[in-house]
Amino acid sequence: MAMAFGIDLGGTKIEIIALDEDGNEKLRRRTSTPQQYDATLEAIKDLVDAAEADLGLQGTLGISHPGAISPATGLMKNANSTWLNGRSFDKDLQAHLERPIAFTNDANCLALSEATDGAGAGAGVVFGVIIGTGVGGGIAANGKVLSGPNAVAGEWGHVPLPWPRDDERPGPDCYCGLKGCVETWLSGTGFAADHARTTGDALRGPDIIVKAAAGDSAAIAAIERYEDRLARGLAIIINILDPDVIVLGGGMSNVQRLYTNVPSLWGRHAFTDEVRTGLKAARFGDSSGVRGAAWLGRDLAA
Fold first, then answer.
1. Which residues are bridge partners to 266 per DSSP?
2. What digits encode the pLDDT tens for the residues 220-240?
3. N or C end of the chain: which has fewer CB within 10 A?
């Protein structure tokens, strides 16, 4: 039986999964992420070795990681796990494990997972969206990750919020050095910051959602602003990529009203008479990243 192993390398935890050919989970475990480079390589190796020993077989291996591996330098860039930046992560890990490994970032893994056997299964083009602590995006076309020559395909979190209103200009500061990026508005922290700027009341995103459900007018206004901005942001994706399905993951994807309200709004900005793109929640939720990593490794061996 062929086994596909996937690793999801996060800032606080490293998770491994083993999937059989039908996508059934055969093993899953996790460990804390060491905040140091060499120790991270060793922790991944320990997880893989132990998982293969327990199952009594080897398999393919894919890695979901933060940031991107620069095609220009071969070094990691843009990772919030900063000890990875500037390192030859892919070459070092493959040498450490003495095997070929497939690498891509977490948003690409979300898109691949959901295109393979998730909410976008069977669709030609799936745009995977992460709206959580940050905002990310990934593209799966015909069941394959689209990375691009700069390894930034799908990174819609760092385009300006489209069709900004006067009170949205120039927008909040973004860590990338610019202002008004989609991430500053549509991340969970951006949603909370918008509510705080408007009301003076500093609340966490989930608390705002609870208050909105209870009828609080300020909280309802905050989520309505969020829905309008998300509709504008995704209309740009529809205009450029025209995906069959947009799949949402990350903490804000759990807000159920988005799936009704955002499609009712994005048509006014999409350059078409009728938007046929679907908006769906990730079938595998927080597991999409590690499952996508497993499918990525399997595809490397194909």
1. none
2. 999 999 999 999 999 999 999
3. C
Which one-letter DSSP state was computed for residue 82? G
CB 233 within 8 A of CB 241: no
CA distances to 76, 81, 92, 221, 225 from 174, in Å: 20, 17, 31, 23, 19
Task: State pLDDT tens for residues 81-128.
Answer: 889 999 999 999 999 999 999 999 999 999 999 999 999 999 999 999
Task: Answer yes or no: are the C-beta atoms of 290 and 108 closer than 8 Å.
Answer: no
What's the whole-model pTM score?
A: 0.92
Closest CA to 13 of 47, 50, 55, 51: 47
| Buried/exposed 116-138: b ≥16 CB within 10 Å, e otherwise | bbbbbeebebbbbbbbbbbbbbb
Structure tokens at 292: 């996508």
Sheet holding 278-281, edge to edge: 144-146, 135-141, 125-131, 245-249, 278-281
- Give, rounded to a whole angstrom, the gap between the first and last alpha carbons of the chain: 15
